[in-house]
Design a protein that fits this description.
heterodimer, A: mainly alpha, 7 helices, rod-shaped, disordered N terminus, B: mainly alpha, Fusion Protein Consisting Of Minor Coat Protein, Glycine Rich Linker, Tola, And A His Tag, Chain: A, Domain 2, 3 domains, 7% strand
Chain lengths: 238, 281
């Protein structure tokens, strides 16, 4: 005997994993993309944390050294020795070194007048400052992108999933909840994954942006203070 | 510090951060795995919440009882203090006049106090015993309920297992019997169903839950020789509409291409169930 219009369904409880692995191909692609985005953004979150906290510590340490009353030439020479040992100069110390080097070089040439020397030193420091700022801000736009885009990607997965669910429904003579429910649940899981990827990225972006602002602010202040010291030196030295 | 960090992790900390990110995602996945395993094993456990509720409700009277006892004890103490104060005042007033009687009374007082204390102690003991009895009864009741629930659960599982076993056996038997012909038969039946469904116009008297079983006899060319109503739906118009649908849909010329033994085995006489399932009224 054969039923003409009956629908047979077998009920089984659905776990989250069955939902993900049983999803349609398009939805699985979306899940994979979201997973990759989340992985990369977490990678950046940790890496930026290391870099930014190291930069903050370096600022505190160098400022302490600088204002301890040490001779500037000596400080420069110490840095040079460290550089020869293979330690990369970064942050505030780099600004200091570039500015001081330019200042000394211009002064030794002797030809330029005082204002030109000052201007040269300040220009060199501005360049170093913008390089340092660039270093600190690297990858942060990616976090912002993940934060704003991955909910949309999740939504796209959900829309595809629900479309599939309804297409599957079209072949059924009878629309029961058992037919639609797994498809919709599968679709909603994708939105959840998108949000899970987005939230840490947004939080980290906001936090790191303010951190970068504070560090670059202290660089700027330091550059100004240092150029005022140089100014004093060049006007008293003659 | 920075030097140590850089030497340890190298390349601006990229490898370390990649490792940490991977670990984090692995942990999240493991949590989900664990969680889903947990929820799958705990399906349909409706027993647990009621148990918790019962505990909560029955905790309250005990608490109130305890609080009441505490209050009583405090009141008792206060009363005794007041009594003692009064007594002291009295003693002071009477001490010059009647030393001996005073002693006498004091002895009596002592006696009474001892009795009071004794009474209080007994009262407390009694209350404690009652409380213990109450708790014991409660525990027994809970145990009983748990046992009953577990029994019901076990029976349900057994029944489900048996059903699943039966279903599996049936499926296996069917698969073994008709593995070779299965697809042919399936496609033929689907074709016939499709044709008949297309040709079938349900009468206005059709209702959900109606069911008519028709037996049709066919020639190997797919022509229908006879249609008989094996099981009537109780509605003549409905049965007739099904018959007409079969006649209108024939001949099923696709069956002519079928191997003879398959046709003879499955299609010479074919039973079809007609159900107006997709009607909405």
């Amino acid at each position: 005997m054969h039923n003409i219009a009956g629908v047979h369904e077998v009920n089984e409880p659905l776990g989250l994993l069955q939902l993900i692995f049983g999803a349609s191909f398009e939805v699985q692609i979306v899940i994979f993309v979201l997973l990759a985005l989340s992985l990369i953004s977490w990678c950046i979150i940790v890496q930026r944390y290391l870099v930014l906290s190291a930069a903050e510590k370096a600022v505190a340490r160098f400022e302490e050294r600088f204002w301890s009353g040490i001779d500037l030439g000596l400080l420069y020479k110490e840095g040079s020795e460290l550089q020869e040992e293979g330690v990369a100069m970064a942050g505030m110390e780099n600004i200091f070194r570039v500015g001081f080097k330019e200042f000394m070089r211009l002064r030794q040439q002797g030809k330029a007048d005082r204002e030109a020397v000052m201007e040269g030193a300040q220009r060199a420091m501005r360049v170093a400052f913008s390089r340092e700022e660039e270093k600190l801000e690297r990858h942060l736009p990616f976090l912002a992108t993940v934060g704003s885009v991955s909910p949309y990607i999740g939504l796209l997965g959900t829309v595809i999933g629900i479309m599939n669910a309804f297409l599957g429904l079209a072949t059924q003579a009878q629309a029961t909840l058992q037919v639609v429910a797994p498809g919709i649940a599968e679709a909603l899981v994708v939105t959840a994954i998108g949000l899970i990827a987005a939230i840490p990225a947004v939080v980290a972006f906001n936090r790191y942006s303010s951190k970068v602002d504070s560090v670059t602010g202290s660089y700027m202040t330091f550059a100004d203070e240092f150029s005022s010291i140089l100014h004093r030196q060049i006007h008293s030295g003659s | 510090m920075q030097r140590v960090l850089q030497r340890l992790f190298g390349h601006n900390g990229y490898p370390l951060s990649a490792l940490i990110a991977l670990l984090l995602h692995g942990m999240a996945l493991a949590t989900i795995l664990y969680w889903s395993g947990e929820s799958a094993s705990a399906e349909l456990e409706l027993v647990q919440p009621t148990l918790v509720k019962a505990l909560l409700i029955d905790e309250n009277p005990q608490l109130q009882e305890r609080q009441r006892l505490e209050r009583q004890r405090e009141a008792e103490q206060l009363r005794q203090q007041q009594l003692a104060d009064q007594r002291r005042r009295e003693q002071e007033r009477q001490r010059e006049q009647e030393q001996q009687r005073e002693q006498e009374r004091q002895r009596q007082e002592d006696e009474r106090r001892r009795l009071d204390a004794e009474q209080l102690r007994q009262q407390q003991l009694e209350q404690q015993r009652q409380q213990e009895l109450l708790e014991e009864a409660e525990r027994q009741r809970l145990d009983e309920q748990q046992r009953r629930d577990a029994e019901i659960e076990r029976q349900r599982r057994l029944r489900e297992q048996q059903q699943a076993e039966l279903r599996r056996q049936q499926e296996e038997a069917a698969a073994v019997a008709a593995r070779t012909e299965f697809e042919l038969v399936q496609s033929g039946v689907a074709l016939i169903q499709q044709f008949i469904e297309d040709a079938w116009s349900r009468p206005p008297s059709a209702r959900n839950g109606m069911r008519a079983v028709l037996r049709i006899n066919m020639l190997p060319t797919g022509e229908v020789t006879a249609v008989t109503v094996v099981e009537s739906s109780g509605d003549g118009a409905f049965d007739r509409s099904a018959e007409i649908a079969v006649h209108r849909a024939q001949p099923f010329s696709e069956l002519a291409e079928m191997p003879t033994h398959v046709f003879n085995g499955n299609f010479r006489t074919l039973s079809l169930i007609f159900q107006p399932e997709d009607l909405l009224n």
